[in-house]
C-alpha cells in the first residue's frame, strides 16, 4: 500500500493516497486514545506524533522478558502463587482498558512482559492496527489474529466484538502459562461443534494441582467458543476467583439443539457481515475505477495541451526565421556599412551559401574599381 522514499512514507499509487491518509489519521486517533491509559501494568504511551508522511507511537521502555520467553526458557520460574498474582494484575489492567471503552485485541504471552519482580506489563495493543485494517480496502484482507489466542469472532470481518473477546485471549494466555500450550484454535473448535463432534478443548478443572476450582473454572468459562457464554467482564472474572461473585461460576453446558441454533445464528451473522463487506468492496472498486479514469483523462488532456503548445511554439519559431530571412534578402546592399572587425563573422555566417557573401562581393567590386581608376587601396565601402 505504501513505500518509503527519501525518508518519506507515501502511497504507492495516487488512487491509494486518500486511503493511506485515512489509515494514518485513524492510527493517530487510536494511539491518542491509548495514551489516556494510566496503569502500572500497562505500558505507557510516551508520545504520539506525525513525521515523514506517517505516524508513530513512542512507548515507555520496559526492561524484562515476555511471558512466552519465560514459559519456554524458564518453565519453573513461575509457581501457583506467582501465576495467581499475575492473573490479578492482568485482570486489573484489562478492567482499566475496558472502562475507557478500549479493546486490546491482541492479548497473548508475547504481549505480556515480566519485569524483575514478576510484575506483568501489558504491551502492543492490536486495536490501532485493527482500526486501520477495517478502514482500508488494501488491508482488509489481513487478519489481526493469533491462532490459539483469538476468539472465533476476531476472524470474521465485520463481526461484533466485545470485552469478552479480550477475556478469551487472556484465558488462552493463562491456559498456555498453566499447561505449556495454547488451547485448540477457536475455528477448529467451532468446526467440531458444527459437525456435532466433541469440543477439542479440555477444561482445566481438576487437572491442575495447586489451583482451586474457582480459579480454573473462571479460565474455562472465559474460553467458551460463543461470546455470550463467556465471562462478560474482567471485573466479574476477578470476583469469581476471589469468591465474591454472585450466580453460577461453572461454564454452562449446551445440548445439541442449542449448539445447532447458535451455529445457525453465527452463520447468518457471518453471511450478513460478508455481504456488507462485499458491497463495500464493490463500492470502493467503482470509486477507485472512477478516480483512475479521471486521472487518465487529466493526463491525456495535459498531454494534448503540451503537444499543442509545442506545435504553436514551433510554428512561431518557423515564422520568425522566415521573416528574418526575407528581411535580409530585401535589404539594399549599398546602404550597408560593415565593420572590418566583423569580417570573419560575416564570412562564417555565409559559409556554405550558394550566393556569394556581400562582403566578398564588395571586395571584388573594389578590386575591379582599382583597375579602372588606378587608385591603389580604394575599395567600395573603405576609404584610404
From TrEMBL:
Residues 1-254 form the Protein kinase domain. InterPro entries: Kinase-like_dom_sf, Prot_kinase_dom, Tyr_kinase_AS. One of its GO terms (molecular function) is ATP binding. Keywords: ATP-binding, Kinase, Nucleotide-binding, Transferase. It comes from the Bacteria. Residues 279-302, 323-353 are annotated as: Disordered. Residues 335-344 have a biased composition (Basic and acidic residues). CDD domains: STKc_PknB_like (cd14014). Pfam families: Pkinase. This is Protein kinase domain-containing protein. It comes from Aliiruegeria lutimaris.
